[in-house]
Design brief:
Blueprint (H helix, E strand, L loop, with lengths): L1 H13 L3 H23 L5 H38 L2 H8 L5 H14 L2 H7 L3 E8 L10 E3 L2 H4 L2 H7 L5 E7 L1 H6 L6 E8 L10 E7 L1 H9 L5 E7 L2 E5 L24 E7 L2 E9 L12 H41 L14 H67 L5 H16 L5 E3 H19 L3 E7 L8 E3 L2 H14 L6 E10 L2 E8 L6 H12 L13 H13 L4 E7 L3 E9 H6 L1
Parallel strand pairs: 1-2, 11-13
Antiparallel strand pairs: 1-5, 3-4, 4-5, 6-7, 6-9, 8-9, 10-12, 13-14, 14-16, 15-16
Length: about 600
Amino acid sequence: MKRKLACKRIQVLDDWSLRTKLYILFIFCVLIPVLATNAVFYQSIKGQIEAKEQSRINEMQQRIRFNLRNSLDNSLYVSNFLYTDATLNRFMESKYRNQEDYYFAYYDMLSGNNLVRYYYSYQQVNQVTFYVDNDTFVNGGNFIKLNDDIRKSEWYQALMNTDDQMMIYSYFDKQQAEMSQSQGGRKVSIIRKLNYFGKQQVEKVLKVDLDYAFINKSFKNEGAGGKIYIVSDDRIIFSNDAQMNQARKPFNLMSSMELDASQSTESIPVVSENWQIIVRGEKLDFLTEMIDSRANLLLLIILNLLVPTLLIWLISRSLVDRVGRIARHLDQVKQEKFEVITEPAGKDEIGSLTHSYNMMVVKIRNLIEIVFKGQVERQALELSKKQAELKALQSQVNPHFMFNTLETIRMRSLIKDEHETSDIIQKLALLLRQTINWGNDLVTVQDEIRFVESYLVIQQYRFGEKLQFVIHAGDEDILEMRIPKLTVLTFVENACIHGIEGGSSDGVVEVSFQKQQEQLHIVIRDTGVGMDEDKLSMLRNMMLDPSLERLSELSSIGVMNAFIRLRMYFDERVQVHIVSERYKGTTIRIEIPLVQASQG
């Protein structure tokens, strides 16, 4: 009973338009909660101040990240340029006989590359030093011999203990701190092994010292409204805090400072390390008046949670249930099951969609019953018609050859009393078996050549030396292609009866099979009496529109019969060309696509 009552309530929502539902959703789930929240917290600006402060800190972090990245990138540019300098590499790899040779090579190297320009063009770079394990070098300028004292140094040991070819390393140089009052002893260096050109004879190390004072000064300019700390492995490398900027003392540790829960931390990759940008904003005074009334708090919870949740649940049920119902029926359509939705659809847009779906299903059913069944019937009728036409052609071909051949043997036997008649009968038996048996109307070219040869031998028996013939196949793979049975034989028979027999002089029948331009070309040529222009034109016109009904217009149906059968098997892509000249002979060229001839 309760379930039915709930369903009736949901059906009432189904009658509302989607626009009305969205208005209700907006008023009760967005507008009312926002107004209620703003009315309660109108006097409180804590969130705005915190957001503004956080935005300022974020902007500060972005500027710090940009400046720091710019300084490091400029130093990396210098390091990368020197790392790939071939002239510089040859200078450090070479051995020198004396100091004079070394100085000549040194000045020649400086004039041939951009070392000086790169070194002095970036203010972020304080010093570039090459440490070279070459005994012929002279310490001075930017080049220092790589000796045992340097190998024992902190930065060199750190480079040797890492698998990276390049590293950034911060350390405190006590000796420099005692010697230089202005620069102090804090150093940040990009150190790398110079092995760009493969295995070398001399060990070389490049050390690019960043200008610590210049970079640290840029962070001091960000000092208003917060403290900045650039930290690497717990060491505070740069900072705008005066207590952390005592360059004559080692780096301070971040772990020694008190934790600040409000600080903002961002990690950025720097060469082989991950540095942290820590920004601590100033403490802010907020208006901390809070609502103590439990009644107001309860009212806010009801407005912001319960009412919107209930409305969203009811409306979503109204939408999701009916859309899911349509989706399930559409899945049945994919399986060719066309079922009408019988449940209540409602009066909104989804209800209209449901009604449209039902109309579509009904129309599809009608189309299946009318169009599909009619198409099947037409295809069956067309197939029956094709089969009837093919059988009609076959029934005409069979007696045609059989009677002409028997007449030839009969005439020859009356004129001469010869024992070679047995050979002719053997050839005749082969032809009769093929003409009577139509179980498979497609035969290979090799079988067709055998039929043609048997027939021409019989005709040669009849005409004697008056008839000569030549059969030629260009490639062996042609012999395995398939064509309709007795089609070539039909054209050959026409050449003998209507071409050679009507002439008074000797004649030749030539049959060839060739592959040309993705086509099988079959050529039947005779040197008989040929055809006059009127008969040739009539035959060509009939080939433009071949049909069984027009066969009665010809006195000899063999050529047209064969052409129609070729069209039935190879469609309109088969072409037959006839060239004939009176008293000189006739040439018939059949062109069949190789793909169709190969497939049969």
